[in-house]
Amino acid sequence: MTTLKPWREVAVPHKDVLEGTFLQSEFAADLSAVRNGKAPREYQDAVAFFERTFITEGMRILLTQVAERLSGRGGEPVIQLQTAFGGGKTHTMLAVYHMATRTVALSELTGMSALVDRAGLMDVPRAKVAVIDGTAHAPGQPWKHGKTIIRTLWGELAWQLGGEEGLAKVKASDDSGTSPGKDVLGDLLRSYSPCVVLVDELVAFVRQLEDGKSYSAGTFDSNLSFVQALTEAAKLSPQAIVLGSLPESEVEAGSSKGVAALRALEKTFGRVQALWKPVATEEAFEIVRRRLFEPVRDGKARDTVCRAFADAYVQEGAKLPAETQETRYYDRLGQAYPIHPEVFDRLYEDWTTIEGFQRTRGVLKLMAKVIHKLWKDDNKDLLILPGSFPLYDPNTRSELLNHLGPGWDPIVDKDIDGNKAATTELETKEPRFGAVNAARRVARVVFFGSAPSSVATRQSAGGIRGMDRGRVLLGCLQPGQTSSLYSDALNRLVDRLHYLNSSGDKAQETTRFWFDTRANLRREMEERKRRFDDKTDVRAKLGEVAKKLVAAGGFFDGVHVFTGHADVPDDSALRLVVVAPEVWYSKSEPRGSHEAVTDFVRNNGTKPRYRGNRLVFVVADQGVLVRLRDAAKVALAWGSIVDDVKEGKLNIDQLQKKQAETELKTADEVLPKVLRECYKWLLCPVQNAASDAPEVEAYPLSATAASTTSEVERVCEENELVIKAWSPVHLRTKLAELYWKGGAVTASAMAFWDDTLKYLYLPRLKNKDVLAAAVKDGAAKRDFFGTAHGEKEGRFDGFGFGDANVQLTDTLLLIEPAAALAYEAKLAQESAEASVKAIEAAQAKKGATGVQVDLPIGATAVGTSAVPSGSTAAIQVPKAKSYHGTAEVTASMAKSRLILLADELINVLVSDPNAVVKVTLEIAAEFPNGAPEHVKRAVSENGKSLGLKASDWE
Fold first, then answer.
1. How far is CA 7 from CA 16, 304, 370, 747, in A?
2. C-alpha closest to that of 391 among 404, 519, 382
3. Which of 537, 748, 814, 935 could crosslink 532 through cysteines, CB 3.0-4.6 Å?
4. What is the DSSP letter of 675?
5. Beta 128-133 vs 195-200: how paired, if at all?
6. Given CA atoms 108, 109, 111, 112 in this order, what sign does their dihedral have?
C-alpha cells in the first residue's frame, strides 16, 4: 500500500507564511501604495503579483475588456466592480494597473499571454494609469505634488495623467471646486490615451461632504457631477476606460450619509457601467493556494492523497454529504489541495455571511495564521481540515472570534480546544478518542461550521442553525479512520458540553449541532437531572408511568405499583405487585428480590399474611435499572425546563423553546419503552409439596408484547402460575393427596378454596368460579367424588354421586369415590331391607285384619294366603325365581367397581348353593379415528387367551 504523505511534505507555504513574518496589512491591497512604490513586493512587483494571482473567470473577462479598450478594439468604457467586502475589487484593479503600466514584456506576467491570445490581440499597449483613492485625501484640505497644490479629485486625475500640463486643462475647475464638463474631461482622456482611471473607495470620500457646505474639494453635488461627466467622457474616448469600485452593502458604506453617497454613485455609474462580480468559490481555491503556498512539486503524492480521501468517502456512503459520493469531488480535492474543500465551503458559505468578514482578504488572513501554527506544531494531517484548525492558538482564535462578538472566548476555552477544555479531558479518559484527537476535532468542526449561523440567527429571524452529522464527520474524517469513532465522540460531547446544542434526538441523522453563547438546553437538562432523587422524584415518575402500563381489571383483581406489603390487602383477590425499583432481580444475585417477595407473602404490615398465594410480582432487571432511572430523570428535567419557560422563569428563544418541547415529547415516549425493558421479570412464589421449602421462580417477560398486562397473563397461563380452568381430575388428585387420608374420606370444598389462598403448594386459581366449575364437572360423573351437604353419625345429608346439579356452598363436602360408591351400595341395601320389612309388615297386617294394605313403593306382594292369628304354621310367601342386574362401569374406575360388584353383589348371590348365577361382561369400545394397530392386536390376543365368547373388530 502506498504511504500517504501529510500535507506539509507535499505543499510548502511561502516564506512569509512559513515564518509568520507577514503583516496583516499586507493582505489589504492598496492602490495608492502601489502607485507610490511603497507596497510590499508581492503587490508592487508585477511579475511577483501575477505569480501569486489566480486569474479567475471574472478577472479574465475584465482584463480582456481593458485590453480591448486600450487597443481601440471596443470594450466597455466604464466598469463598476461591486462585490462583497473583501471580495477582490482592489486586487482586480491592481491586476489592471500592472497590465497597463508594466515595465516588462507581457509574456513575463503569468497567465497574461494566454489571456491576450484568447482575446485575439497581438499585444496590449502600455497606458497611463490614474488612481483616484477616496481614502488618500481629505475634502477640506488641499494636497501637494511637489509645489503644485491639488484641491479636487478631478485635479488629481489631471495631474496623474498629464502632470502640470494635464492639470492646466482643469485648473479653473480645481480652484473653484466645480466639476469640469464632459468635454474638458474628454479632451483630457483623449490627450493621454490609452489611459485607465481606477476609482477606489469613492464612497469614503463623498460621504464626508455635507449638504449645504462648500469644501476645497467641492460639494456633494459637484463630486457626483464629476463622476457623471467622467463616465460620459470615457464613453466618447475610444482608448480610455474607467474602473470604479463600490461597496456591495450599506454596512460597508458606513453612516446614513455614506449610504446616500453609495446610492447616488450607483445611480451615476449605472448609466454606463458594466457590473461585474468576481471570484467564484471554486476559484478561491487557487487564489488562496497561490498566495499562501509554493507550487506543488510532487503532483503524484497530492493525487494519491486526494484519491484516498475520495475512496474513503465512497466507502462511508450515506453517512457523509451527498456531494462526496460524486466523481467530481475528487477534482475539488485536487483543486483545493492542501486545504480541504470543506474549509472553503464553510468560509465562503457561512463566515462571509457575517457583516465585516472580508471575502478574500479575511480568508487569506485567517488561513495564513492557521497554516503557520500547524506548520510550527508539526501537524501531520493529510489535508488541512476544519478539524485541524488550532483554536488553542490565540492568533487563530482571535481572527475568528473578532467577527462573532463577545462571549465566545470562554466557550472555546471550556468546551472546544485547549488544555483545560472538556474535549481534552474526554480524550484523556478515553484513549480511543485521544489517539486521533477525536473530541477536539469534532468540537472544532462544529464551531467552525455553526458559529456564523448562531450570529446570523441573532441578526435575523430566519436561518437554519448548525450542521448535520454528515458534515461534521466530513470535517474530521481521514483515510484509514472510521466515521463511527467521530460519531461516538459527537454523541458524548452533546451530553458533556455546556454550549453545544442539538436539535431533537442526537442519534438521528437529521439532527443538527451548533455552538452558541447561551448554554445549551441539553446541558441545562443534564444539570437539572442532578436535582431529582432516586427514592422520591424518580420513583414517583416511574410509578406514574407504570400505572398506565399495568392497569387493573381483566386478569388481575388488583394491581399495586410500588406499594409496600402493608398496603396490599390480604384477601381472596388475585393481585399483581409491581415492586419498587429499590428491589431488582439478577440471575447472578437473585437473593434480594426473593427475600422481598417472601416478605410480601408472609407479612401484611405488622400482621402475618394469611393469603399469600394470591400474589404475583413484576420486578426490575438490574442491568437496565440505571438506564431506566436516567430516562426518568431526563423526562423530569425536560418537564421542569418546559414548565419554567411557561412560567417565565427561564428565558430562551423560540427555537430553544421548540427544542425543549420536542425533547420532552421524546423523553415521555422513550420512558415507557425503557420501563418495559427494565421490568422484564415475573417472580412467583411456589412450593412443590407441603413438606418442601417455599421457592421463588423467575420468568422473563417480553418487552415487545402488545401490553405488559397481556404479557403477564400469557406467562402466568403458560406456566400454570395462575389457573383459569381446572379439570376435576386435578382436584381429585389434590384431595386424595392431602385430604382423603388417615381414614378421612371427605373434604370441605370451601375449606379447600380457603387453603388455595394460603398455601403455595396448592394451585393458584384465578377465582372461586374456577373451583366451582371443577366441582360441578366432577360431581356430574362417578369417577371423581361424591357430594353431600353434611355428615352426622356416618350418614351424609344430601348425598349425591353422579349428580350434575351440585353448587359450591359453604356446606358442600367432596367424598372419596370408593367411599361414595360403598355408601351408595349401603343405601341400596338399606333400601332393599326396608322394602322386605315393609312387605312383611304389610302381609302381616293384611292377614290379621283381612284388609288390603298398600305396600311401600317398589315393594311387591309375594303371597296371598294368610295365617290366622296365633297359628304356629309358617306363612308360605312365594319366592322370587330370578334376578337380573345391569351396571355401567367407566373405564377409569373399572377395576375398583368390578371388585366392588363381585364382593357386594355376586358373592351374595352365590351364597345360596342352589342358585345358578351367570355373570356376563359386555365390553364395547368406539374409536372415532380408528383403533391403533398395536391396540387391536393386543386386545384380540388377550381376548382369545381369556376365552371370550365374542371378540370381534368392525
1. 18, 12, 13, 95
2. 404
3. 537
4. H
5. parallel
6. negative
Half-sphere exposure for 451 (CA within 13 Å, toward CB): 24
Distance in angstroms (rounded) separating the CA atoms of residues 634 and 538: 10
Strand partners, 339: 384
Residues 6+ away with beta carbon under 8 Å from 213? 219
**84 close to 248: Cβ distance less than 8 angstroms:** yes
Q: How many CA atoms lie within 13 A of 171 on its CB side?
A: 10
Can you say whether the dihedral through the CA atoms of 215, 219, 222, 227 is positive or negative? positive
**CA angle at 720 for the pair 719 and 726, rounded to the nearest 5°:** 150
C-alpha span between 296 and 12 (Å, rounded): 8
Residue 456: exposure state from Cβ atoms within 10 A (0-12, 13-18, ≥19) = middle
Handedness of CA 163, 168, 172, 178 (dihedral sign): negative
What residues have CB less than 8 Å from 75, skipping those under 6 apart?
A: 64, 65, 66, 67, 68, 69, 241
CB atoms within 10 A of CB 859: 17
Amino acid letter, residue 945: S
Any idea what the Cα angle at residue 292 is, between residues 44 and 446, rounded to 5°? 135
Helix (H, G, I), strand (E, B) or coil at 810: coil
* Contact between 151 and 142 (Cβ < 8 Å): yes
Q: Copy the grid coordinates of residue 368.
A: 495564513
Q: What is the mean pLDDT of the chain?
A: 85
Residue in this structure with the C-alpha cell 420536542, named with its chain if needed? 662
CA angle 436, 440, 443 (to 5 degrees): 135
pLDDT tens for 536-568 read: 999 999 999 999 888 756 789 899 999 999 999
For 349-398, write each residue's pLDDT tens digit.
Answer: 888 888 777 777 788 888 999 999 999 999 999 999 999 999 999 989 98
Which DSSP state fits 415? Answer: I
String of b and e for 21-52 (b: at least 16 CB within 10 Å)?
Answer: ebeeebbbbbbbbbbeeebbebbbbbeebbeb
Q: How many CB atoms lie within 10 A of CB 390?
A: 20
Q: Which three cell numbers stand for residue 786?
A: 361424591
CA atoms of 939 and 231, how far apart (whole Å): 128
| CB-based contact 286:54 (threshold 8 Å) | yes
Alpha helices in 460-510, H assignment, sequence order = 469-474, 483-496
Q: Which helix (H) or strand (E) holds 313?
A: helix 299-316
Strand 786-788, strand 813-815: pairing: antiparallel
Block residue for cell numbers 499571454: 113
pLDDT at 261 over 50: yes
Q: Where are the beta strands (DSSP E) in 524-633?
A: 558-561, 575-578, 584-585, 603-604, 607-608, 615-621
| Residue that has been written with the C-alpha cell 406499594 in this structure | 563
**What residues pair up with 501 in beta bridges, in sequence order?**
514
pLDDT reported for residue 460: 41
The C-alpha atoms of residue 865 and residue 929 are separated, in whole angstroms, by 62
User: Which 3 state secondary structure label does DSSP give 53?
Assistant: coil
Please count the other Cβ atoms lying within 10 Å of the Cβ belonging to residue 929.
5
Phi, psi for residue 715 in degrees, rounded to 5: -65, -40
- Identify the bridge partners of residue 218 per DSSP, sorted by sequence position: 215
The three state secondary structure string of 620-631 is: EEHHHHHHHHHH
Query: What's the angle, vertex CA 354, arms to CA 353 and CA 355, rounded to 5?
Result: 110
Q: Identify the band that residue 901 occupies on the pLDDT scale cut at 50, 70 and 90.
A: confident
Whole-angstrom distance, CA of residue 288 vs CA of residue 299:
18
What is the percentage of the chain residues whose pLDDT exceeds 90?
46
User: What separation in angstroms does the CA of 294 have from each of 10, 114, 353, 363?
Assistant: 10, 22, 30, 18
d(C-alpha 365, C-alpha 360), whole Å: 9
624 pLDDT exceeds 80? yes
Rounded distance between C-alpha atoms, residue 954 and residue 917, angstroms: 31
